[in-house]
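Q: I have 419 residues here and want to know how they pack in 3D. Can you give me a structure?
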Amino acid sequence: MKGFFFFIAFFTLIIKNVYSQKYISVSPPPNIKTVQLRSFNSGEKLDIFPIISLGNYFTLSFDDINATESLYYYNIKHYDSYWNASKIFQNDYLEGFNQIPIQDIKGSFNTLQSYTHYNLTFPNENIQLKISGNYAIEILDSSGELLFNRRFIVHEDISNVNSYILRPRNLDLFQTHQNIQFDVSISTLSFRDPLKDIKIVLLKNYNWETAKYDISPQYIENNQLLFRYDKETQFEGGDEFLFFDTKNAGIRVYNINQVVIGEDGLYTNYLFPDVVTNESDYFFRQDINGDYLIQNIKGVKSEIDADYHWVYFQLATVTSPDEEIYVYGAFNNFALTSENKMTFNPSSKLFEAKILFKQGFYNYTYVTKKEGKVCLTCLTGNYAQTENNYLILVYYQNLGTPYDRLIGVGQASSFDIKN
């Protein structure tokens, strides 16, 4: 009998640990480069953010510069709106099995840096997604060790979202911040308590690191949920992203000052030094809000004939000794790692970083980290005029649904900001 109770306690502990797991972003090891998780909706490729409606599909691709054709596996997990593991079983959200090998593997062609390219399309014949909500895909090596993961979301088209961007009512923030106001229209669902059943998550420029949670409806009018907050739905405007272009190998274009071939035989692109200050006036630059596009202008299939180049960043700025500076963008999933951390060069009096990129067009900016806190605007400035994209994610859960459904998605751009 004691053994029985011990088994029940042990089993309960396992279930509790599984359900209490929270998503933690894991960056890939140094040999894994150019991780791209993209979405296809009705055949249209979206180059920014991994989101689909039920019935459409994603592609995940990455390169291994060890070029050994190793075997990698993938797992898919479901999460709630706060990115805690959902309290449902795998067969509730998946049709099929996890830990399936990636089979679409190709070697690079005519490149100075050899690599193996991996491509995965899902859902596929081995695995189908059954419900909407937050998901993550994990890539494992042959021993089952987690190499990296990426978030993606699947939505239903049940609610309509109307939104617009305003300047803040607080005059102290009028020149620096942007505020989202929106309505959610729902006519096919019944609510026990709309303030608890509906959860809103806001994303700026598709970056989960700056997401806002716990936004409940402020007013209810017929079948509309009204969100008229100021402070709660407010974001810093930030600044436009910087960019560089390495599609044409060995050619100085746009922001590239000099191109040389290094001792390793790869091109090194020296960018013009960036001078950033948060006290300068706003200057418009066309950008793609931190994203990047892989392309080789002389090639046919960029996934295998685009080469790898070193890109050398130089930054002129003033910071305190205990501040760290990072090159920041979607190229590494907005992570702060040793690879994109800058170091101060006493000879040039500049902060410098040398990062390996696959050929293409890239957005980037600079951020600081001090005492564990990241500041996205301390170096580059903060302007209400900055063009930003916003996503409004509408989650729904009631007593009959043991997980958070994503029942609607809205988009807004500060390009049309109103005073």
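Q: Anything worth noting?
A: The domain at 246-276+285-371 is CATH 2.60.40 (Immunoglobulin-like). The helical segments are 2-19, 90-93, 194-197, 302-305.
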